[in-house]
Design brief:
By secondary structure, this protein is an alpha+beta fold. It has helices at residues 30-43, 55-63, 134-139, 143-149, 160-163, 210-226, and strands at residues 7-10, 17-20, 45-48, 84-88, 113-120, 129-133, 153-157, 178-182, 184-186, 193-195, 202-205, 231-234, 241-245, 249-253, 262-269. The protein binds succinic acid.
Length: 277
């Protein structure tokens, strides 16, 4: 975990790091890119401060990691399909990500990572994002619970954010992806095990009675939301870009700033394989 071309200040000993010495507006050298890539695997969440990016530069940096993802909701908004606008104002009825989730796990192959670029932070403070370490969430389970989860498969339903977190029905006539993933997956690059259910998208665990599935999922969600060793906290400023590994983290955007405005843009990168045990 030592780097030659970038500097790192960690947010906690296991998740989150601020990266120094990188200008994302310019193409990274191959050496710097491979160190950023390694730091992303090591720290799961990378924070780049004082970056002055237009949309093309934001997307160009994301493209170094793979092709760009189009969010299943985004086609109904118009604009650039590869940019997800995250904007909350005094009039908003809900805000994106205000609950623990992993991005778009309803997809057959969910995005491998997302980059959120902050354009406006709320006057008066607030609007931080928490990121939780899902390797550690798995490792902190008892051996008995690990054995119980082994081999279980869960359904991830794209309509759930609307009826749950967003409090509205999906727009008429729109189909949302629904796919199954193992409850415990192995990160394809690090080989480490990850707890892979989230309250944003996971509707139920297959093969269990509804009450059994609810009990197990609620217990796991409580573990994720209340185990204080899991998260790091990103405090935003305008021109901060945060890049998270969606395969081993969950995040929660805290909506504690009403009636003020927060505005960011997200670009996500298409995953290259289905989550697997
Ligand atoms: C999200 O991607 O879920 C939004 C995160 C945030 O607004 O901090």
């Amino acid at each position: 975990m030592s780097y030659r071309t970038i500097g790192i200040t960690t947010l906690t000993p296991h998740i989150g790091a601020e990266v120094h010495g990188v200008d994302l507006a310019r193409p990274l050298s191959n050496e710097q890119f491979s160190e950023v890539y390694q730091a992303w695997l090591d720290w799961k969440v990378l924070v780049f401060r004082d970056q002055h990016l237009d949309r093309a530069q934001h997307k160009a940096f994301a493209r170094r990691f793979g092709s760009l993802h189009v969010h299943p909701m985004q086609h109904s908004y118009g604009g650039d399909p590869e940019i997800l606008t995250v904007r909350t104002t005094a009039d908003s009825k809900y805000t994106a990500g205000n609950g623990w989730h992993t991005d778009v796990t309803c997809d057959e192959i969910p995005p491998l990572g997302s980059m959120l670029y902050m354009k406006e932070t709320p006057e008066g403070g607030g609007g931080d994002t928490l990121f939780a370490d899902m390797y550690l969430a798995y490792e902190l389970l008892s051996d008995t619970m690990k054995a119980m989860l082994d081999g279980l498969v869960a359904v991830h339903d794209g309509a759930l954010p609307y009826v749950g977190a967003y409090g509205v029905r999906p727009p008429e006539g729109q189909d949302y992806p629904r796919h199954e993933h193992p409850v415990v997956v192995t990160h394809p690059e690090t080989g480490r095990k990850v707890l892979y259910v989230n309250s944003g998208f996971t509707s139920h665990i297959k093969g269990l009675a509804p009450w059994e599935s609810r009990m197990l999922l609620q217990g796991l969600y409580q573990h994720i939301a209340t185990e204080v060793r899991l998260p790091c906290r990103v405090r935003w400023a305008p021109n901060t870009l945060t890049f998270w590994d969606n395969r081993c983290t969950q995040h929660h955007a805290i909506w504690d700033y009403h009636p003020h405005t927060r505005h960011a843009e997200r670009v996500s990168i298409v995953g290259d394989q289905r989550p697997a045990a």
